[in-house]
Amino acid sequence: MSQTIIDARGQSCPRPLMMTKKALKDPDVTGEFVVLTGSENAKENIERLLQDNAVPFQTGKEENHYRITVNKR
Questions:
Q1: In which domain, by residue range, is 25 found?
Q2: Euclidean distance between CA atoms 34 and 3, whole angstroms
Q3: What is the CATH number of the domain that holds 10?
Q4: What DSSP string describes 1-51?
Q5: Contact of 43 with 68, CB cutoff 8 Å
């Protein structure tokens, strides 16, 4: 089973947040998934969404983007 990667780099707000919400509701996306975003604002909005919904996640900074690993239960 491959890990789902949501590539939201280059997307304007609120698109990365909406893509993340969709993945959280999608029954085909299970376990961990990754959201990539180049925007610090989008990263903060996604982190707030996950925190507000008690969804475990980890954020890392890569060369030119953020990588948010989400543990969907």
A1: 4-72
A2: 8
A3: 3.30.110.40
A4: -PPEEEE-TTPPTTHHHHHHHHHHH-TT--EEEEEEES-HHHHHHHHHHHH
A5: yes
Kindly state the percentage of the chain with pLDDT values over 70: 99
The H-or-E segment that residue 60 falls in is strand 57-61
Q: 67 with 59: CB under 8 angstroms?
A: yes
- DSSP SS3 for 71: strand
Q: What is the pLDDT of residue 1?
A: 52
Q: What pTM did the predictor assign?
A: 0.93
Total number of domains in the chain? 1
Q: Which are the contacts of 49, defined by CB distance < 8 A and separation ≥ 6? A: 17, 20, 21, 55
The DSSP 8-state label assigned to residue 64 in this structure reads: S
Residue position matching structure tokens 């604002």: 41
